[in-house]
Write a structure and sequence with these properties.
Layout (H helix, E strand, L loop, with lengths): L1 E9 L2 E7 L4 E6 L5 H11 L15 E9 L19 E9 L4 E5 L2 E3 L1 H9 L2 E4 L1 H7 L2 H12 L1 H27 L3 H21 L5 H13 L1 H14 L10 H14 L5 H30 L4 H21 L3 H18 L3 H45 L7 E8 L20 E8 L7 E2 H4 L2 H18 L4 E5 L7 H14 L4 E5 L3 H4 L4 E10 L2 E8 L2 H11 L7 H16 L2
Parallel strand pairs: 3-13, 3-14, 8-12, 12-13
Antiparallel strand pairs: 1-2, 1-4, 4-5, 5-6, 6-7, 9-10, 10-11, 14-15
Helix pairs in contact: 3-15, 4-13, 4-15, 5-13, 6-12, 7-11, 8-10, 9-10, 11-12, 13-15, 15-16, 18-19
Length: 571
């Protein structure tokens, strides 16, 4: 369950602190007040990508923090691979910085966005308008059916996916082996030539850079020798012993030493001069030594240029650096090893493929049987919920077929397998009396999709383990008594899971156990949005506003109170 949500400097919200209740929490406010920002905040906690445009103007960073209660064993399967705290509570945090960086934290540890999403995704499920669009996708419908089938079924699906992935690897390996013998021999011969060419060169990482530096020195040896010799002579370290600048500096240093101790400022100057004198002496000696080492060597220069030319030829063929050429050689060696196979290798892979295919087919058949059973249960549960959502004469049907279109009751063959099993799923609905049953993706309007999604979520939540459901725009395209039916369904759903609903309908808001209001005002030339948990009288006034009336209107207040009484009578 989501206990607390803290937002700082996100868009127009300087700070918001929400303490949420276990049941139905509703969030209301004028259009444009900032309700969508709360939805953004929850998306950030689920690992959604974001940009600096979400940071409040004038702020260096924005952050969203949440405190969850963690059901026992919720992360048991992740504890070995992730640093998941085994506490009763989990604190997660997402921070956005002006420099574009995004950081995520869980349980006091820095985590990746992927890990953040894995953790929060087990505690919270977010449904917005995009979820309605996903509801019409066959792949998402299959995921819904699998979720309804329960945790054991999801484990079985993971086992199948591992087997399917291994099967794909083996098929690829066999495809490589089944290349025409002449073609495989030709490719192997080319790889041997390339490996021999690279190995004969005896390359060493970083060698090209070192050789290039040596080439430059050899090519300009006389110029470098003369420059270093002149510098050494100027600094008194060369063969020329005539008076020079170093003698003048030495004399000045001696003069200042005679005045040492009289004035601290002059002493500091003398210290700097003496240090510089020593540095110049060292530089002179280094220049003298360098001049002695640099020698013109045309033979060595020719060797270096020849070596660089060889390396350049290899780099033009195999990579843009010595390291890339060596990496190419490693890949080529692996490819050559795969090409040079014996008949026993082929037989071993064929045997493993047969075993893996048997396992995958067995698991796919178990998945199909489980899905058929789950489909009947989801049809009944979702259909019942739809009846309660003002679809008085509706029908909800789940059709299973082979993933490639064949009948779902026929025998399974390897060619029928896909990444999700051997099954395709399509949701069908009949929403009005006398109308034919048709595919959901072809028939439902926006308001109908909202209710269908709620009915399915209600059915799946009873079988699932997600403790918090967030709904944004669940009331799109509905109103009146239908809105009341949706509110009653949300309150009923809140008996099994914590619900957070962003809504503009008073018929939904009246069922809330906790009511939060989002308001916007302009302060000091800046738009500021705040969020407050409403008390009894404030809730009545907010319902009046949502109905388009003033809280001073007696009739509106009476209507608001009747809505609240209706919401509280429902258990």
């Amino acid at each position: 369950m989501l206990l607390e949500l803290h937002i700082e400097n996100l868009a127009v919200i300087p700070r918001a602190d929400l303490e949420l209740s276990p049941g139905l929490n509703v969030i209301t406010g004028e259009t444009g007040a900032g309700k969508t920002i709360l939805a953004h905040a929850i998306s950030l906690l689920l690992g959604a990508r974001a940009d600096t445009g979400l940071i409040r103007p004038g702020a260096a960073a924005a952050s969203v923090e949440a405190v969850f209660t963690v059901p026992p064993g919720c992360f048991a399967d992740l504890e070995e691979t992730l640093d998941v705290p085994a506490d009763e509570y989990l604190v997660v945090r997402r921070q956005l910085s002006r420099d574009g960086r995004s950081r995520a934290f869980a349980g006091g540890h820095t985590v990746t966005l992927s890990v953040l999403g894995q953790l929060t995704g087990r505690l919270l499920e977010f449904s917005a308008q995009h979820e309605q669009r996903r509801l019409m996708m066959a792949s998402h419908q299959l995921d819904i059916l699998d979720s309804f089938a329960g945790p054991a079924h999801l484990v079985l699906r993971d086992e199948y996916r591992l087997a399917f992935a291994r099967r794909a690897e083996l098929l690829e390996r066999l495809e490589e082996m089944s290349l025409d013998t002449t073609e495989r021999s030709r490719e192997a011969e080319l790889l041997r030539f390339q490996l021999a060419e690279i190995e004969a060169a005896g390359l060493a990482p970083g060698e090209d850079g070192q050789l290039e530096q040596e080439r430059r020195r050899l090519a300009h040896a006389r110029e470098l020798e003369e420059a270093a010799g002149e510098l050494a002579a100027c600094l008194g370290a060369g063969e020329n012993t005539e008076a020079g600048p170093m003698d003048a500096i030495a004399a000045a240093t001696a003069r200042l030493e005679a005045s040492a101790g009289i004035d601290r400022e002059l002493d500091a100057i003398a210290g700097r001069l003496q240090a510089s004198f020593y540095e110049l002496q060292e530089a002179g000696r280094a220049a003298r030594d360098f001049a002695g080492c640099v020698q013109s060597d045309p033979a060595r220069l020719a060797e270096v240029e020849e070596r660089l030319d060889l390396i350049g030829q290899l780099m033009r063929k195999y990579g843009d650096s010595v390291e890339a050429v060596l990496a190419y050689a490693a890949d080529a060696a692996g490819r050559l090893e795969r090409l040079v196979v014996t008949e026993s290798d082929r037989s071993a892979i064929m045997a493993e493929l047969a075993e893996v295919e048997r396992e995958a087919l067995d698991l796919a058949l178990k998945l199909r049987r489980a899905r058929l059973g789950a489909a009947a249960g989801l049809e009944a549960a979702a259909g019942a919920h739809l009846q309660e959502l003002a679809f008085s004469d509706c029908g909800f049907t789940i059709m299973l077929s082979g993933a490639r279109g064949e009948a779902a009751d026929g025998p399974l063959e390897p060619g029928m397998l896909t990444g999700s099993g051997a099954d395709g799923v399509e949701f069908y609905v009949r929403l009005n009396q006398g109308m034919p049953t048709a595919a959901l993706r072809e028939t439902a309007s926006g308001g109908e999709l909202s209710r269908i999604m709620l009915a399915i979520k209600s059915a799946v939540s009873a079988a699932g383990e997600v403790a918090t459901l967030v709904f944004d725009e669940i009331d799109a395209g509905i109103g009146g008594e239908t809105g009341g039916a949706v509110g009653a369904k949300l309150k009923g759903l809140a008996g099994r899971a914590q619900i957070i609903c962003i809504t503009h309908l008073p018929q939904i808001a009246c069922f809330a156990g906790a009511h939060f209001s989002v308001t916007k005002e302009v302060a000091r030339g800046k738009t500021v949005t705040s969020v407050a948990c409403l008390e009894e009288e404030e809730i009545t006034g907010e319902l009046c506003r949502m109905m388009g009336s003033s809280s001073a209107d007696d009739d509106a207040r009476a209507h608001a109170r009747s809505l609240l009484e209706r919401g509280r009578m429902l258990t």
